Amino acid sequence: MSLQIKPILAALRRHKAGTLLIALQIALTLAIVCNALFIIHDRLAHIGEASGVDEASVFVIHNQWGGDQSEQEIDAQVRADMAALRQLPSVRDAAPASGYPLQGGGWDNFITMTPDQVKPTTDSAVYGGDEHLIDSLGLQLVAGRNFRPDEVATMGDQQMVIPPVVIVTRALADRLFPDGSALGKSFYAMGATPSTIIGIVQTMHRQGTSTWDRPYAGQALIWPLRRADTRGLYYVVRAKPGELAEAMREAPRALYAQTRMRIIAGKDGIQDYARIRQRAYDRDRGMAILMGVICTVLLAITAAGIVGLTSFWVGQRRKQIGVRRALGARQRDILGYFLTENLLITGGGVLLGLVLAVGMNLWLIVRFASQPMPIAYLGVGVLLLVLLGQGAVLAPALKASRVPPVEATRSV
Amino acid sequence: MLVYYLDLAVRSLKRNRVLTTLMVLALALGIGASITTLTVLRLLSGDPLPQKSARLFYPQLDPSPKDSAITSKGRLPATMGYVDAMNLLHAHRATRQAVMALTRAKIMPPQAHAHPFFSDGVMTTADFFSMFDAGFQYGSGWTAADDESGAQVVVIAGFLNDKLFDGADSVGRMVRLNDHDFRVVGVLKPWAPQPRFYTLGLGGDHYGDGDAVFLPLKAARALKMGPQDTECYQAVDDFSHLESAPCQWLGLWVELDDASAVAAYRRFLDGYVREQVALGRFQRTDTSLLDLMGWLRDQHVVPDDVRLQVYLAFGFLLICVVNTVGLLLAKCLRRSQEIGVRRALGATRREIFVQFMVEASIVGLAGGVLGLAFAELGLFGIRHQPAQYAHLAHLDLAMFALTFLVALVASLVAGLLPAWRACLLAPAPQLKAM
Q1: Which of A360, B90, B115, B300 has the greatest number of beta carbons closer than 10 A?
Q2: What is the number of domains present in chain A?
Q3: What is this model's ipTM?
Q4: Nearest to A264 by CA among A58, A88, A61, A103
Q5: Nearest to B323 by CA among B41, B91, B125, B26
Q6: What predicted TM-score, i.e. pTM, was given to this entire model?
Q7: Does residue A53 lie in a domain region?
């Protein structure tokens, strides 16, 4: 095989433009495919983030108040609503909440270790709920204890209450107290008084999924607060296993039986977690699909380009091939010639492509705050294009190898 | 002559159908992707008020303490506190000026048995409508006196008027908002500038339908209606007195007619801030006065993903063009003998060149037509996405024309090298080889 490289190079020199064009196309394809694969992987990893919620059984009701009620009346109504929901045969537990994981954005506070600290230590998503919230979401309490009913405070819509106790996620606990001693320690979350950590839950996603949330991924805290907001609040309801649909039908009926002075919007008023998750990651999924389509089409076009150009070369060189066959070259040799030729072109293109791919990644980092691409993506891209090139050239090369030696005697 | 070239080109393209289809399809895919993404980008980065945007400015200042970490990296807060917004508003240094915050308003329809519902609203001041060219179907806006007295008046959008009053002239009638009666003074004509520039920084959607109700700020605040977004640089435990809290929640827009007015306002703003520093209220002297389009850029109104998609689509188109160059080149070299015969029969180099460019542009036009179909398909897909701007994605006349321009330019660029190579071929060796 190695003996063949010299004549191949000599032949390629006679097709400079075509060779360069294929190499350039391979290089550009490699650059885009590598980066697209990386973006796809990045988005899919994002989509797959755990929420910590028992997603198969939990749904969320956005309850807005229709009447003109005082905060006391609203608080009483929330308690009555909770009692009604928890009594439903299909419901395991229910809790009022200020927001829920994957909501798409919501309440978050900066965290400091001392009240007069200027630069915050980190940021945490904030959830307010009662002692049923952890069970209603299906969160896993891994250390400490849940809230006691007497710790749950009421917070009006114009008020800010900082409760003395807090439950945090493991991610937040480890961020604030890396030595694992978080339980019993306290911190400040944009208030004058501290909150003491009484419990740690394994995982609870933030409300937001945007790039802003990323450095603070998984950092969330729950305060024992029941919001008496005159506008409305969320009810997190956990159905008994397998009874989600039933519970989603019964719950609004039970609430309207309590009072009709409420608004539960038809479309987004009640959402199960399948829908919440889908909405939260719509953009990421769309981007991943788009990248996938672009990769596939690009590879197809490049393959087609190689097939087209090589076919022409084969057609053009029929006579030379015939001469080689007549001089004793086997079909295998002809096949090897075209495969090697393609390998050389692809190799050149891939080398240029690697430079372009890394350059494009650097540009994405600067321009779009993307992450550096692991070397593995380059490896996968190179492998993909080499296989693609060899696969694409196979058909024309086989055709070439079947050129009979008698072709040498024919004029064109 | 051109007709002859066209005939030659069609024959040549027909001779190798698979290859022609491949070239057209690749070009069409590249063009379709580029035009789709470009349409979305243009839609998202468009000028919401083309006739007015150069005269609208967004002043910013920074009341937060010097060592505060909230306003990081030299960026000024997007909104203002009540005291500063009112001071600047009442100074009347611009042709028009208005402060605004977004809110949610509970609306009780007048019809019996109707359910209350929530709508988007704007709490603002009198100049809002004239400054932003919001036209009235019935009535007019409220007056500065209404602003001061806290009059319970409201301007409603046309679509809300249709819903509540069946589209009748409702000026003077009452709308029940957050359980209080507001008198309708005006009904807007359809008005929904895209992007919704005045909601940037105020916590609203950047694209989509217009707001339903417009209320005088003072009257709305008297009923404790709150802003959608509040940024506080100190701990606050009672949000009912936002006017005196260390919080920013209002946007101020000013209309300035010419460059000297802009320069004068800039001086005024800087003077105001220095005065506040002297008074001990402020510690930072930075100010900003961006025009409308500058403010849109500053707020990154166009999602990064959309820009990334445009770059990718054009990268894709580039690869398609390179692909077409390669295939056209191969084709033309294969026809060396035909070219030799034509040259020998008297065709000039120029004529050969034109012949091959005609062939390339036929591929381009076919690619453009098919690309247009792909672009329509792509936009159809985008309209069925859940994004705020989804329903706005349509191909307009300019993009329609651009599609063919891109197709033609792409194919001519692709045809250039092969045509050049073809016309340089010396006829004699080709004839000898026959």
Answers
A1: A360
A2: 2
A3: 0.80
A4: A61
A5: B26
A6: 0.81
A7: no
Is A40 part of any domain?
A: yes
Establish if A192 touches chain B: CB-CB under 8 angstroms.
Answer: yes
User: Is the same domain home to A343 and A298?
Assistant: yes
Residue A318 CA to residue A332 CA, distance in Å, equals 16
Same domain, A340 and A390: yes
- For residue B48, what are its two tokens? 């919401």
Binary contact (B329, A17; C-beta < 8 A): yes
Task: From chain A, pick out residues whose CB is under 8 angstroms from the CB of B305.
Answer: 283, 287
Of B117, B330, B421, the CB nearest to A308: B330
As a whole number of angstroms, the distance between CA A141 and CA A144 comes to 8
Mutation target for A interface from B66, B319, B327, B417: give the one with most A CBs within 10 A.
B319
The single-letter DSSP state of residue B237 is S
Q: Do A294 and B316 touch (CB under 8 A)?
A: yes
When CB atoms are compared, the residue of A17, A158, A302 closest to B224 is A158
Which residues does chain B have within 8 Å of residue A28's beta carbon, measured at their own beta carbons?
315, 318-319, 322
Q: Is A110 on the interface with B (CB under 8 A)?
A: yes
Q: Are B216 and B123 contacting, i.e. CB atoms less than 8 angstroms apart? A: yes
A149 belongs to a structural domain: yes
Indicate whether A362 belongs to any domain: yes
Burial letters A386-397, b for 16+ CB under 10 A, else e: bebbbebbbebb
Question: Which tens digits make up the pLDDT trace of B139-171?
Answer: 999 999 999 998 999 999 999 999 999 999 999
pLDDT tens per residue, range A310-330: 888 888 888 888 888 888 888
Domain boundary among A227, A261, A280: A280
Q: Which helix (H) or strand (E) holds A111?
A: strand A108-111
Q: Are residues A210 and A305 in the same domain?
A: no
Range of the domain at A176: 58-280
**A39 and A180: one domain?**
no
Please return the burial class of A171, using the count of CB atoms within 10 Å of its CB with bins 0-12, 13-18 and 19+.
Answer: buried
Q: Residue B193 contacts by C-beta under 8 Å, 6 or more apart in sequence?
A: B48, B49, B132, B210
